[in-house]
Amino acid sequence: MKRADNKVSNDAEAAIRQVLQAERDAENAVRDCEDEAHQIIQHAQLRAKEIESRTDQRITNMEMRHGHKLDQLIRSIEKEGEVRLEQDVEQNVSEKTLQTVIEQLAIELCQADSSNTGADEDS
Description:
With 123 residues, the chain is an all-alpha fold.
């Protein structure tokens, strides 16, 4: 019977060792999975930072391009406004000059007519 007890005891110890080894293997597998998960997270965070950096650069480039286009458009509008203002000034000057000439002509005609009427009355 002692041999049977020894055999049972040996079998029990072997089973216990097998269970303990399975626990260690499971703990190692869990640790490996945690390490891999941490690496995946770090890789994803680095990738997200790279994407954020590229996105910021693209936004900055777009802002610069649009700012440049806007500056060009503003300059074009200002130039067009200056040209129109110059044209308006030239047109107003021409109208004023014309008006002055007409007024002077009217005065001269009135004065000439007055002097002719006075001369006709004297005759």
